[in-house]
Amino acid sequence: MKNLPQKPLSRHYWLTAIAVYKLLQAALFLAIGAGALHLLRFHIDPDDLLSAIADRLRFNPEARIVHFLLEKASLVNDPMLRRIEAAAFCYAALSLIEGVGLYLEKFWAEILTLVITASFLPWELFEILRRVTWVRVNLFAVNLAVVFYLFDFIYKRRQEHLLELNGKANT
């Protein structure tokens, strides 16, 4: 039997872009988890650390944003840091799995990313309605675009698969 020429593997640009986004997200959450672990391991008070950084960078301690950050950092204790660490590492692992799976164009990764991203949309919308910021609106828009793209991508891939099966059944 003759070997038929194989169709060259083509990359889907937006799927790769989403994979890179997920991998960057994994790196960010890995850094957050590592930071929380570092603070716990060396018994560093987040309030003292931020105060030292603000002093070192010569920020005005009475500035609104500096005062806000120092006030919030004073609320962080060891149990909260443990929760931040655990959540950050879990989310980093999940984002890493999504990113690698999407880069390899695995069907399970497309479904997983679609479900997880869609599940966050109501919460993101609630946060926007609570207080509109450009970060929240842009994050919502990006995640909504990811959901629509993946839904369309999965639907088209399914249609192509059904056509292939139908074509093989007719031969």
Topology pattern, helix = H, strand = E = HHHHHH
Number of helices: 6
Overall morphology: elongated
Protein structure class:
mainly alpha
What is the count of β-strands? 0
Q: How far apart are the first and last residues' alpha carbons, in Å?
A: 17 Å
What is the beta-strand fraction? under 5%
Estimate percent helicity: over 70%
Average pLDDT number: 92
Number of self-contained structural domains: 2
Global Rg = 23 Å
Largest sheet: none
Instruction: List segments where confidence is low: pLDDT < 50 over at least 5 consecutive residues.
Output: none
List the helices and strands and how they pair.
Blueprint: H1 13-41, H2 46-56, H3 64-73, H4 78-103, H5 107-130, H6 134-170
Helix pairs in contact: 1-4, 2-3, 4-5, 5-6
If you had to describe this structure to a student in words, what would you say it looks like?
It is elongated, with a radius of gyration of 23 Å. The model has no long low-confidence stretch (mean pLDDT 92). With 171 residues, it is mainly α. Helix 1 runs antiparallel to helix 4, helix 2 runs antiparallel to helix 3 and helix 4 packs across helix 5. It folds into 2 domains: 78 residues, no CATH class; 59 residues.
